[in-house]
Write a structure and sequence with these properties.
In chain A, 30% of the residues lie in helices and 30% in strands. By secondary structure, chain A is of the alpha+beta class. An eight-stranded antiparallel beta sheet of chain A has the order 13-12-9-10-11-14-18-16.
């Protein structure tokens, strides 16, 4: 079978799935998605959609039978069925094994630590007493996290002092979910490095992006990151090491902290294209989505060097906005010819929902950051009541 | 209505339609295509396809009623229905009026000439005697062309001498089609300039591309064109003038000849994105397809400056190849990280059929031309019998 005849199955038809498909279609691939929503962002561009929930084992098996390679756009999937399918000989990238380790933040960090990768100090906790003990050791503020299922700040709680331990414990499931604590990192910058591994083991590492979060959700990615050359090399090197540890095929995102002393600690690994990698669509010759498609179909990887300074800003549903999404201001934003808007096609806007993003390119990072700020302020997603 | 809520209708679901949709989808547009083939390149990515032939007036009307703006990916369409719809208030870009003039090569050239744009000497001919007379005036070789319906060399005939006039007349319809002759141009280069006009009259002109044809079909586009700075400015200026003449909204391609004396003559205008503009996907921030979508939906135009030297090579069905298309060598081609392949998704390969294209970027044009040549030789479309 030639590479281009491979049928691709994607679990999840959100914006990441959509952007994968847009790249897959340039190469003429046949794509099936699995998503419970009939109007998910991918619905109109996939060849076929299986309407089913993400833990529907039967539906996932049906998809596996129809495609040559299966992938996913987010990590909160029933990994048991993936392992089962993998054992039966179906191809899933990144592998179910690497997904399983990464899904659990505690296991992920243990794996990284065992491979001599620096991470913030952490501990598994099972009770309020455990958290109190950890507090004595790590001091405050201290992070409490659910080991599984968190995203965009959900599943995280900053414990400011011993008095708020009870509340944090209550907020994160009251003991129903596995928990861990992490020493709070006095950070200078948050950065992320995207990397991809081909089927033959080839690894490509993207430039370092600098991330700015707002209310625990990614707001902005600036590339290149304003860090020292030494830090940049170290970060890219660490991303490379992470790829070797998980030996997964496909795109990974490695989120990192740069400390006040210019040390780098790994915060989290995601086994998929990532919000902080959207800049690659305009900023690099090979976007993270195309790279992922190349990797999982066995094609060699493309060039990932930065073509010019690039900034990405998320378009997120504002507080108070809900209902059918209407976009205002795109005509204003587009008056600057170096701004590009991506709209995911979600029918409804909701507070904190990722609705799209803006990419700006230019000659200097300063200029691009300013233009992106202007664009971000001009575009509005309004909920039609 | 906000710009992004506009529904787009495209007549034609071939590769140009497909590439328009891939860009439209990044902005979340709803797209309907009209194409007689169920498996046309656009079929899996448009929201809806109307299965009908391109001269099916009723079907075109049905589409007009369902969308806010209608466009087309090729110019051989029944213009009467478009004019009728336009008169009733439906929006069609480029306008039916500009399409009507451009459809007829003779009228197109008269219009250009009346606006002081240099074109090769030409004449309308109705009979063998007319062609003979023109031959005395223009000398040989001389071009005979059908005024309507030609593409990729079809509808053109190079008359080498007076003896071959009868054969040329027979080959081009034996008097059933309107004909014209053109003085043969002793050309140094063939170039083309893409340009776009926004709804508010804003005009953006792309860099000049140098085109190399093989068997009358475009084989290669090199950007920037290897012509003098003066020629480049003149070509871009002429493209700008053409945009003002046809006052169309959307993308146009202006094909030109550079003579041995560095004069520029306009060969042909196409009221749509063009094969020689595929390089813009990787070579410019705003591709010709995105620009077209921006223009017809009333959005401001994007930046069109060249990001780096870029070469496009067509992937065309070779003589003897027919049947279900299989692609060989893409894994070899992709070993160079700066090569990108686009596969249109046509089920069957046929001799001279455009199946896809290759784009290569790099630091110098020389390097890129070489890499593109290597890639072109490595990829094969094989027809499965």
């Amino acid at each position: 079978m030639d590479n281009l005849s491979k049928k691709i199955g994607i679990i999840g038809g959100g914006q990441l799935g959509k952007m994968m498909i847009l790249e897959a279609k340039r190469l003429g691939f046949y794509v099936i998605t699995l998503d419970p929503s009939e109007s998910c962002p991918s619905h109109s561009i996939s060849d076929k959609q299986i309407l089913a929930s993400f833990d529907d084992k039967k539906a996932i098996r049906t998809m596996a039978e129809k495609v040559d390679v299966m992938t996913y756009e987010f990590e909160h999937i029933n990994v048991d069925i993936l392992k089962e399918l993998e054992n039966e000989g179906y191809t899933i990238y990144p592998t179910a094994k690497s997904l399983e380790i990464i899904q659990n933040k505690y296991n992920q960090k243990v794996t990284l630590l065992n491979n001599n990768i620096a991470v913030p100090e952490f501990q598994s906790v099972k009770s309020i007493e455990d958290i109190q003990k950890a507090g004595h050791q790590f001091s405050y503020p201290m992070m409490l996290k659910t080991c599984t299922g968190g995203y965009d700040g959900k599943g995280n709680y900053v414990i400011e002092n011993e008095e708020s331990i009870k509340e944090s414990y209550k907020q994160l499931g009251n003991g129903t979910l596995p928990l861990m604590v992490e020493k709070f990192v006095d950070l200078k910058k948050e950065i992320s490095v995207l990397a991809c591994r081909g089927i033959d083991g080839e690894i490509s590492v993207y430039p370092v992006g600098e991330n700015i979060h707002k209310d625990s959700i990614l707001d902005e990615t600036r590339v290149p990151a304003s860090i020292s050359m030494e830090c940049t090399e170290k970060a890219m090197d660490m991303a490379h090491q992470v790829m070797e540890i998980f030996s997964g095929v496909g795109m990974f995102c490695v989120e990192m902290f740069v400390t006040q002393d210019d040390d780098i600690l790994i915060n989290e690994v995601a086994p998929r294209p990532h919000n902080s990698g959207h800049y690659t669509i305009e900023g690099c010759f090979t976007s993270q989505f195309e790279q992922h498609i190349r990797a999982i179909t066995g094609l060699p990887l493309g060039d990932v060097s930065l073509r010019c300074p690039t900034v990405m800003r998320n378009i997120i549903g504002e507080n108070g906005e809900s209902g059918k999404a209407n976009y205002e201001g795109i005509d204003k934003v587009y008056k600057d010819g170096n701004v590009k808007v991506h709209i995911y096609g979600k029918e409804e806007v909701r507070p904190k929902r990722k609705m799209g993003h803006i990419t700006v390119i230019g000659r200097t990072l300063d200029e691009v950051v300013k233009k992106a700020e202007t664009a971000k302020n001009e575009i509005k997603v309004v909920g039609e009541k």
